[in-house]
Write a structure and sequence with these properties.
This protein is an all-alpha fold. The chain has helices at residues 11-26, 28-34, 37-59, 64-76. Helix 1 (11-26) crosses helix 3.
Length: 99
């Protein structure tokens, strides 16, 4: 995607791209140590589409099928996953961005 295309995107597409960029940046060290550029490109495509699909489901929360899929995803969250935000890497205890 070129920067000049940004304005023509839907909000959903913008949100998915911003989230995917943040995920990609978070994976950069793992990428450098474990994945070729080609494999990282393949992974980035999967991440972007998965984020777009998840955003679509969340935005369609009034749709019964979307609710079923969201409930299924909630039930599939592993017990060992930490709760996001508990480490406050980006946001402090008062909700301020700390970058």
């Amino acid at each position: 995607m070129r920067v000049e295309q940004w304005q023509s995107l839907t909000n959903r597409q913008r949100h998915a791209l911003l989230l995917a960029m943040h995920v990609r940046d978070g994976l950069e060290t793992f990428h450098a140590e474990n994945l070729s550029d080609a494999r990282m490109h393949e992974l980035n495509v999967i991440i972007r589409q998965a984020l777009y699909d998840a955003i679509t489901l969340v935005e369609a929360y009034e749709d019964l099928e979307a609710l079923r899929q969201i409930q299924y995803m909630i039930e599939m969250i592993p017990d060992y996953w930490e709760i996001p935000g508990e480490d406050h890497r980006l946001v402090d205890s008062e909700g301020r961005i700390t970058v």
